[in-house]
Design goal:
The chain is α+β, with helices and mostly antiparallel strands and about 775 residues long. Among the domains are: about 210 residues, Distorted Sandwich (Beta-galactosidase, Chain A, domain 5), CATH 2.70.98.50; about 80 residues, Sandwich (Immunoglobulin-like). The protein is about 25% helix and about 30% strand. It is built from 14 helices and 41 strands. A hairpin with a 3-residue loop joins strand 34 and strand 35. The longest helix has 21 residues. The chain starts with 14 loop residues before the first strand and ends with a strand.
């Protein structure tokens, strides 16, 4: 069938090595049977602009390449014996048929539109321009325009010495470099910028160039250094921290993967990566991602007439598919930005008005007052029969047969997924918290409205989404015949979305049921689906550890992910890079959102992120974390002893034992030392965590008094609550009666207080 759209490109090499540049460009080495191609993809001014359009943003478009062709004619796939992969410094060990060995080095410069090629022995390169190179001693460059952008592609080489340059009849330029020569290869917006780069690195040997590059990386990246007691896990953490850094350009765009087809800027993927990294103690990423995402909303067509602003599947564009979770990830980004950085200046009237506009449009489209649930005409990426795009792929214009069409001979009209409900519950509460920080009286009505809807939604979930065995349904379908159907964890549902729904937060409408459902999915996922996605798996691992999973089982849960990352593969020989799916070791590798969720689940073993703050934790797997960045504070946390309970902890010399949520008033700007004393078991009561801000904490020998605040209802979790002599709750001196839920078979008890504002908790020991 003839099509007017180019099919998305995938890596067609036998081996494919991919490096993403911090300025937004990409180098892909495609090792073929007869040669090795090097593809340089240019994203004009991506690091200078916070506009998605500068990323050549389309998965049906030709990508802008700097050269018509660029290849190593003497190197074939069979000659590649080893790949020593690092996103900023990769080495290829090449062995010829004669036995000669060469080491080819590729350096990805962290702060320039440029890559470096060098080799230990002579190496031949063949390059063909789009039109014609300007040639001088030591440089080839071409000026051309594409998509309204002026581009200069350049190659700097040692010069014409010893006749190491020639031009073939077909316009191919051939360069021979000798041992340890340096080639600078890149693209810029004009000759002046090109000249600046070449002067900066002129005459610099490879070792010094690498050293300078590492200094640039260290300045930004080496924060929140977690130390895991297993070398294989530590190696994967250290490498993937660098992968995350390379996957987000300086302008804030976070690419889905270091890949030719999965390079798009997904709202979900980028938000997860930046939020997880911020919660793991490195806010650098969300500082760049948040303004990029929030000031590039999507556009969505409503009722075939009205175009509204929205946050959809992909940043900025109209042509992405209509998923319902983009709004959650936008608001979560804004909320996490504020909670971890403490800066309200991003939240201008313009941005606040945009978020409200998007929420109101979403509620108008999806809020079903009849059942007090969110109802959608799409499920994941699939349009249902109520959608105007049913049977139609909005991206490429093709006809689409969905997996939910003719479901058991009864078409699905609309859908209410648990994922959608939990996401919007969080959207409403996070927005109330953000609006509460704004000095605008006109926002009070929105706060009241969103609190009301959130409460109605929670009550409806309790009424409609809990099965007889206490687990949460995953899906509710409105069928064409007027009936409704509920599905639990069964074959064919989207387990990724269900996994996030029961474990991600930051607020949990039904914590007991979400934890129980998380446990159920963990036990059944692989047996039902055959595989699982590493990102939701990592998020679930963090949740499960927090509510009782032992460190040994936590390690076993993640061991496959580490083992597959450390498996030498053929198609993507990026040793140590995390993949997307369990069992897909030859699939896409180096995914930032897999890596960030993996890092967060390990930092959470000692500093656990809460909706509003952090709590200390104890694990046999992690002994310390250094340079954890949170607002104005740098946290250095160390654990002593054995066991996975906490007998006490010390912040800057002051000891606490009855509340594990960190009292932020005890932190000081700059460096803070936290010492955690571990033990096998405790027999006294502890406030384990809350979803509110801890304003005040005082302890003496047998009692604790604490003040918590938030503009929403509050949930508190206690360990060994029954061992306390008294737990009392007051507001303005008036006693409060909580809703109490115990998690069976555990030490955990949840207390929910409906009152907003400040409340006082008093804990008295036996």
């Amino acid at each position: 069938m003839k099509t007017f759209y180019r099919e998305p490109m995938i890596e067609e090499g036998i081996h494919n090595i991919i490096l993403q540049n911090r300025c937004g460009n990409r180098l892909t080495l495609l090792c073929l049977t007869d040669r090795c191609e090097m593809e340089f993809v240019y994203k004009p001014n991506a690091f200078r602009r916070k506009d998605f359009r500068s990323r050549n943003f389309s998965n049906r478009d030709n990508q802008t390449t700097l050269f018509d062709s660029f290849y190593l004619p003497d190197i074939t796939s069979s000659m590649i014996k080893n790949v020593y992969y690092d996103p900023f410094y990769t080495k290829l060990e090449v062995k010829s048929e004669s036995g000669a060995i060469n080491i080819i080095s590729v350096v990805n410069l962290a702060d320039e539109n440029c890559f470096v090629i060098s080799a230990r022995q002579p190496l031949l390169l063949a390059i063909k321009p789009h039109f014609e190179f300007n040639v001088s001693d030591g440089i080839l460059y071409e000026l051309f325009s594409e998509r309204g952008e002026d581009i200069v592609a350049f190659i700097s080489f040692p010069g014409f010495e010893l006749n190491r340059y020639r031009m073939l009849d077909d316009g191919t330029h051939v360069l021979q470099i000798l041992e340890n020569d340096i080639l600078l290869i890149g693209g810029e917006e004009n000759k002046m910028q090109m000249t600046r780069i070449l002067r900066r690195f002129e005459g610099m040997p490879l070792d010094e160039l690498i050293l300078q590059n590492e200094k640039t990386i260290k300045t930004t990246l080496y924060k929140s250094l977690v130390y895991v007691n297993e070398d294989d896990f530590q190696d994967v953490i250290d490498l993937n921290r660098r992968i995350i850094f390379s996957g987000m350009d300086e302008g804030g765009a976070c690419f889905g993967a270091l890949n030719r087809i999965y390079y798009l800027i997904w709202v979900r993927d980028g938000s997860m990566t930046s939020c997880h990294m911020a919660l793991a103690g490195n806010p650098i990423f969300i500082q760049r991602w948040a303004p990029f995402l929030l000031f590039n909303p999507s556009q969505t067509m409503v009722n075939e007439k009205k175009v509204v602003r929205d946050f959809s599947q992909l940043v900025g564009t109209r042509w992405s598919k209509s998923e319902d979770d983009g709004l959650f990830y936008a608001v979560w980004t804004a909320f996490t930005y504020f909670r971890t950085i403490g800066d309200i200046s991003l939240f201008s009237d313009e941005l606040i008005n945009l978020l409200i506009e998007c929420i109101e449009n979403h509620l108008e489209r999806c809020w079903d007052k009849r059942i007090c649930l969110l109802s959608s005409d799409t499920l994941g990426e699939d349009p249902l029969t109520a959608s105007p795009y049913f049977g139609y792929d909005i991206v490429n214009g093709s006809m689409l047969k969905t997996r939910y069409q003719d479901y058991k001979h009864n078409d699905i009209v609309r859908c209410s997924s648990l994922y959608h409900q939990v996401n919007m519950y969080n959207v409403l509460l996070m927005t109330v918290c953000l609006l509460n920080e704004c000095d605008r009286t006109d926002l009070l009505e929105y706060q009241k409205r969103y609190l009301k809807i959130a409460n109605e939604l929670r009550n409806s979930l309790r009424k409609n989404f809990i099965s007889e065995d206490g687990k949460l349904y995953s899906l509710r379908f409105d069928m064409v015949d007027g009936t409704e159907k509920f599905l639990g964890i069964v074959k064919g549902i989207d387990y990724w979305e269900h996994g996030w729904a029961v474990s991600q937060g930051p607020f949990f409408p039904l914590p007991y049921h979400q934890i129980e459902s998380c446990r159920e999915l963990y036990k059944s996922w692989e047996s039902i689906a055959g595989t699982y996605g590493f990102c939701p798996w990592n998020v679930m691992a963090r949740q499960l550890f927090n509510y009782g999973m032992a460190s040994t089982e936590h390690r076993i849960m993640l061991q496959r992910e580490v083992s597959e990352a450390r498996t030498k593969t053929e198609k993507y020989p990026l040793f140590g890079a995390l993949t997307e799916y369990a069992g897909a070791i030859e699939g896409w590798r180096a995914l930032p959102f897999s890596a960030a969720s993996f890092l967060l689940t390990h930092t959470s073993l000692i500093l656990y992120p809460l909706a509003m703050g952090f709590a200390v934790r104890a694990s046999d797997r992690v002994s310390k974390i250094e340079n954890f960045m949170y607002r104005l504070y740098r946290l250095f946390a160390y654990s002593e002893g054995q066991g996975e309970s906490i007998s006490s902890y010390i912040i800057n010399g002051k000891q606490f034992r009855y509340c594990l949520q960190i009292p932020e008033r005890e932190l000081k700007p700059g460096k803070n030392i936290i010492k955690i004393m571990r033990c096998p078991k405790i027999d006294f009561s502890q406030l384990y965590e809350s979803d509110s801000e801890l304003l005040f904490l005082e302890e003496n020998e047998n009692r604790m008094s604490a003040v918590f605040s938030s503009p929403i209802a509050k949930t508190f979790c206690f360990l060994n609550a029954d061992n306390a002599k008294e737990i009392s709750w007051t507001k303005n001196g008036k006693a409060l009666i909580p809703e109490i839920t115990h998690l069976p078979g555990t030490q955990f008890t949840f207390f929910r207080i409906e009152e907003p504002g400040e409340i006082v908790i008093n804990l008295v020991m036996q």
